[in-house]
Design a protein that fits this description.
binds pyridoxal-5'-phosphate; nine-stranded mixed β-sheet
């Protein structure tokens, strides 16, 4: 299928690259395609970035039938552009879509559209270390209809946002609080799909934690509220003596690309990494025994997020004196080096653009 390109006649003024933050600025163009039952996905195109018009009854606005992704493009020191494991994101997006009754899309076509879009908006990619072009593919159900059923029509789109260094104030540990009342997801639900309602459902717990001075919520499983699941919208890892543990993918955990990359690297380095159930009580016991050495979250936005404090039962567990641990730091550097093209990436991790 041919991707039709319409360029903007009014390019925007680009933001100050030293003050980008996250998700505040959007480039000049976007990729769009539409779906109808008779045509399938049709009319893939690149257009000027602009608002959508939507009927107020549009299904996505009422019942949340939508999935999204988050990935990044990086500018290397020799001015090449590269994507980090993008096919993993598109594969996951189709998995999320299947759970939400959204039709599958052609991952190769979307990749072609994304690359063209990035090339057109190349001038928007920031170059400083730690900065990137954040990519947000989304699919929404578009029928104007209030009955509860899957939409017949859909829109797929990709927007791009130049983002600043996540740790502009330094690579510093965050404080997290174990959430005892609310849960993020349950097995059989949609916790392993990147679907919009999960984030709305997490807001209250997040805002309560923020009021108490904690940056993120540590989610426990939805049934026994005993086993650790994720931290905010990141996966989580614990180093307990020589074992590194991350919760196994149980059906309610989002299978992170960064999580998968960290597990791969740890195995390559010959370290003891297990994906298994881990209870908050095991963490507490390890802490009390002085064996909880490092804790970190993983996700595309921050890559690695060191954790310095975990609040549980009204007590703060202080990890590694609230300093970034050596393994956390090594992983962060290793992934950044791969993303910015400073070291050889494992095969198929890097997709060049242009
Ligand atoms: C996106 C996301 C992650 C991290 O996934 P990455 O592919 O590493 O960015 C983890 N948990 C939740 C709930 C997420 O939405």
């Amino acid at each position: 299928m041919e991707i039709k390109i319409t360029k903007t006649k009014q390019p925007k003024v680009k933001p100050d690259k030293s003050n980008l933050g996250f998700g505040r600025f959007f480039t000049d163009h976007m990729f769009i395609m539409d779906y109808s039952p008779d045509k399938g996905w049709f009319n893939p195109r690149i257009e000027p970035y602009q608002p959508f018009q939507m009927d107020p009854a549009t299904i996505v606005l009422h019942y949340g039938q939508a999935v999204f992704e988050g990935l990044k493009a990086f500018k290397t020191s020799d001015s090449k552009i590269q994507l980090f494991r993008p096919f993993e994101n598109f594969k996951r997006m189709n998995n999320s879509s299947a759970r939400l009754c959204i039709p599958q899309f052609d991952e190769k076509l979307v990749m072609e559209g994304l690359k063209k879009l990035i090339e057109i908006d190349e001038q928007w990619i920031p170059e400083d270390d730690g900065t990137a072009l954040y990519i947000r593919p989304t699919v929404i159900g578009t029928d104007p209809f209030l009955g509860v059923r899957a939409s017949d029509t859909y829109r797929f789109y990709i927007i791009l946002s130049p983002v600043g260094a996540y740790y502009s104030a330094g690579f510093n540990p965050i404080k997290i609080a174990v959430e005892a009342e609310y849960v993020r997801a349950v097995k059989g639900g949609v916790g392993d799909a990147k679907t919009i309602g999960n984030y709305a459902a997490s807001l209250l717990a997040g805002s309560n934690a923020a009021k108490d001075g904690y940056n993120q919520v540590l989610w426990l499983d939805g049934i026994e509220k005993k086993y650790i699941e994720e931290v905010g919208a990141m996966n989580i890892f614990f180093k307990i003596k020589n074992e590194i543990v991350t919760p196994e993918l149980s059906g309610s955990i989002l299978p992170g690309v960064t999580r998968n990359s960290v597990i791969y690297l740890l195995k390559q380095w010959g370290l003891d990494i297990s994906e298994r159930k881990i209870s908050i009580d095991e963490i507490k016991a390890a802490y009390q025994a002085g064996e909880l050495e490092e804790v970190f979250g993983t996700g595309t936005a921050a890559v690695i997020s060191p954790v310095g404090v975990i609040k549980y039962e009204n007590q703060d567990m202080i990890i590694n004196n609230e300093k970034v641990g050596p393994l956390t730091d090594k992983l962060y550097q290793a992934i950044m080096d791969i993303q910015y093209g400073r070291t050889q990436a494992p095969s198929q991790w890097i997709e060049p653009v242009g």
